[in-house]
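Subject: NUDIX domain-containing protein

B.,
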Amino acid sequence: MRFTNIVTSFIKNGDRILILKRSDKVKSMKCLWAGVSGIIEKNDTTPLDRAKTEILEETGINEEEIELLKANERIKIEAVQYKNHEWNIFPFLFKTKNPEIKLNWENSEFKWIKPNEIKNYETVPELEKILFSLL
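Prediction pasted inline below.
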């Protein structure tokens, strides 16, 4: 079984969390809602380092503007679109006082939602489960 290591971060501002709509230019999960996500690269020292890098790249929020609230153990998810493949998700929850988002090309839209509203969005697999494991 092959696998890909991925970080997925949720950013909290008050009672709302940030979700991003993946653009049609990304390789996988096009046009689905997600947290701030990215593949852990070989040269990354830790999943937390990759999470902070992805947050800066995808939202414009820098490390000084976020505070880590919680990190969970890896969650394994079967990659339905690929045969014999798993996603190893490393989930994080951060908070910020900065609700200003500057999207890059990887995402086309963002929303600040209440956590229980996640069920109203077409998301990447298991996003609701990942979110509620952090809350």
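The radius of gyration is 14 Å.

T.
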